[in-house]
Specification:
Length: about 70
């Protein structure tokens, strides 16, 4: 659930800057490009975190013998 929130965290701001002309000019274009890049990077990194966690969980035994857990 948190990953889904991260993936859409910048969507509202991105939509505001790309959906209509709220700010114009070269600085605005640079800002929009950077916002788009950061939004994309956030989504990629969030997905990478999920993949890493899933890989770790796949490598963890479902059950551990009581003697192994105590030692």
């Amino acid at each position: 659930m948190q990953v889904a929130q991260l993936e859409v965290a910048m969507d509202r701001a991105h939509a505001a800057f790309t959906g209509k002309a709220v700010w114009a000019g070269p600085v605005a274009r640079d800002f929009t490009e950077e916002l788009t890049g950061r939004r994309t990077r956030l989504r990629v990194l969030a997905q990478r975190i999920v993949e890493e966690l899933e890989n770790e969980l796949r490598g963890t035994p479902e059950r551990v013998a009581r003697s192994s857990a105590a030692g």
